[in-house]
Structure formats: structure tokens, C-alpha cells
Write a structure and sequence with these properties.
mainly alpha
Length: 228
């Protein structure tokens, strides 16, 4: 770890590295760490860290404009639908939203808050729709996009300096995230025709893998700001 990275972590760890220190956050971390690959786990956590930076750039503050616990929950569980142990009978975004909602309900989260998380997860691959469904949906989609380094249209990459980015990736390395994530999405999509509707994100990922052996997302990530 370089001195610049150490300084970035020391100077701003509470701002862009530290997770919310709440029982719900800890429970979510335990849940996803147990079922996701390290690459997907790190992607999920980075999506939250980046979503929080986007919120700041948009002038939004936790507690006033959004719930930090709900933002973490939605970002951290947004790929829960590709994890093992689920029925795998719906597209992964919806299945993940359902699994997250069941988990949150079991932890005593209100129906209204649970529904916000459900929408944010279910719509995170739906540009033009997520942006119309409230602050949480906007931040989750932008946080996920941010972690792809601009390859799927992140609009706020300047919210993070290069030393800060190195600090985040030192703690949560990428581990060939794009390939690992697409592997899991395609495997889930192939299990049931309902998992991969035509022209949906999982449907296109499955088609591109079967046709070309590699998706456009995997290709574009290699030349994005973060690489793979």
C-alpha cells in the first residue's frame, strides 16, 4: 500500500471507507459474505461506498434525504438474486429484491422501508426507470454504475479522486469482478426461461455469452476507469 493510499484512508476513512456501524449493517454483511463470491461481495460494498459519494455530490445527506441503513442494505444486497440458495425462478434483480425484502422483514424493518429497498434492487438495471422512483433508487443505480468505472454510464466519477479510489480498492479489491458477476448472472439466467426475458439485462447477458463467449459489459469494463 502506497503512502498516498495510507494518507487517503487516514484522512477520510469515515467519509468513504467505513460502513454504517449498525446492527442491520452487520447482519447484511454476514448474510452476503456467506453466499456471494469475494468479487461480488466487494462489488456490493463498493457500490454503497460510491453511492454515498454520489449522494454528497448531489447535495443529499443521510438522515435528511435518505436512510444510510437502507442505502447500505439495498446496495449490499442488490446481487443477492444470483447467490445460491434461492429458487432461481425469476430474473435475478426481482429474485434479489424478494430475498432482501424477506430478510429485512425478518429483522423488523417497516413495510414502507422494505418496499423502498425492494424497488431499488429490482430496478438497478433499468435506466430511465430507476431514476423516476425516488432517491434510494437513484443512488443505488448510480453506485452500481460507478463501480463499473463508467462502462454503464456512471455520471459522477469525478466525485472520487485517484488516491481515494486506490484506497477503496486496497480494502475491497476488484478480483476480476465483471467476469465473476457475469458468470453468476448467466448461470442463474440459464436455469429457467423466466430468469432471462428477451431484451432484459440477464437475457442479453446470456445471449451475448452464448453467441460471443463474452459480454459487452465485460469487454467495456476492461477499458473503464477501474478495469477489472
Amino acid at each position: 500500500m502506497t503512502e498516498a493510499i495510507r494518507e487517503a484512508i487516514t484522512a477520510g476513512s469515515a467519509d468513504f471507507i467505513t460502513l454504517p456501524g449498525t446492527p442491520l449493517t452487520e447482519a447484511v454483511v454476514d448474510l452476503i459474505r456467506a453466499v456471494e463470491t469475494p468479487a461480488v461481495f466487494n462489488h456490493s460494498v463498493r457500490s454503497y461506498l460510491f453511492a454515498r459519494l454520489v449522494a454528497r455530490q448531489l447535495g443529499l445527506s443521510a438522515g435528511n434525504d435518505y436512510s444510510d441503513d437502507l442505502l447500505f442494505s439495498a446496495c449490499a444486497m442488490h446481487d443477492l438474486g444470483i447467490a445460491p440458495g434461492g429458487p432461481h425462478t425469476q430474473r435475478f434483480e426481482v429474485e434479489g429484491a424478494d430475498r432482501a425484502a424477506e430478510f429485512l422483514t425478518g429483522r423488523g424493518v417497516s413495510a414502507a422501508d422494505t418496499d423502498q429497498v425492494w424497488q431499488a434492487i429490482a430496478l438497478h438495471t433499468s435506466p430511465g426507470i430507476a431514476e423516476r422512483r425516488g432517491t434510494l433508487c437513484v443512488l443505488v443505480r448510480q453506485g452500481v454504475a460507478f463501480d463499473f468505472g463508467g462502462s454503464i454510464g456512471a455520471d459522477h466519477l469525478d466525485a472520487l479522486t485517484d488516491p481515494q479510489a486506490e484506497a477503496v480498492h486496497a480494502v475491497y479489491p476488484r478480483l476480476d469482478m465483471a467476469r465473476s458477476l457475469i458468470d453468476a448472472i448467466v448461470a442463474q439466467a440459464a436455469k429457467n426461461p423466466k430468469n432471462a426475458p428477451r431484451y432484459s439485462f440477464p437475457g442479453e447477458a446470456l445471449r451475448e455469452r452464448e453467441t460471443f463467449g463474452r459480454t459487452r459489459m465485460e469487454h467495456s469494463c476492461g477499458s473503464s476507469r477501474w478495469g477489472n
